[in-house]
Amino acid sequence: MTTTGTTAESSLLASAFRDAFRHHPAGVAVVTARDGAGAPVGLTASSVASVSLTPPALVLSISHRTSAAAALLAADSFLVHLLEARNVGLARRFATSGADRFGPDTRWTPLVTGEPWLPEAPTALRCRPLSRTRVGDATVVTAEVAGVRSSGRAGEPLVHHDRGYHVLGPALPAS
């Protein structure tokens, strides 16, 4: 087992940690908000998880390396769009550094509350941050879900695994 210590050991641990999570599939979401000037910002996230039903709450991690991090972390509210397989183009666009995320190829509209909504996503959760905790090169945000917009569609979920996007296969039989 790799432990922390020297810079070389820390680098090896970081590499082993990254490799471990490459093989742990995660759902894919796009997080959107408005920056201080009112411009839309967003990023692709695979670090979103439900944490509470009462009140409805989730947690996500925002890397400080993304250009949208500062605006998302300063926002009073944001949307978490849960993606399905047919939304892989959105996932790629919002994950690409320097991409025009809200350009002509992206259908979006602001909600009455201001957050950029991506209507192609089957579900969007409107969130208000409860806490922000810096952890290394990221900030973990716990947020209360203030509203849900759902199309009612039940498409194939989009999953990120081993640096690529995938669709889940059929469910395994019950034991």
From TrEMBL:
Q: Name one Pfam family in it.
A: Flavin_Reduct
Annotated Flavin reductase like domain residues: 21-167
Please provide, alphabetically and separated by semicolons, the GO molecular function terms listed in this UniProt record.
FMN binding; riboflavin reductase (NADPH) activity
At the top level, the lineage of the source is Bacteria
Tell me a GO biological process for this protein.
Answer: pyrimidine nucleobase catabolic process
**Classification via InterPro entries:** Flavin_Rdtase-like_dom, NADH-dep_flavin_reductase, Split_barrel_FMN-bd
Keywords in alphabetical order: Oxidoreductase
Keyword Oxidoreductase attached: yes
User: For this UniProt entry, which residues form the secretion signal?
Assistant: none
Name of the molecule in the record: Flavin reductase (DIM6/NTAB) family NADH-FMN oxidoreductase RutF
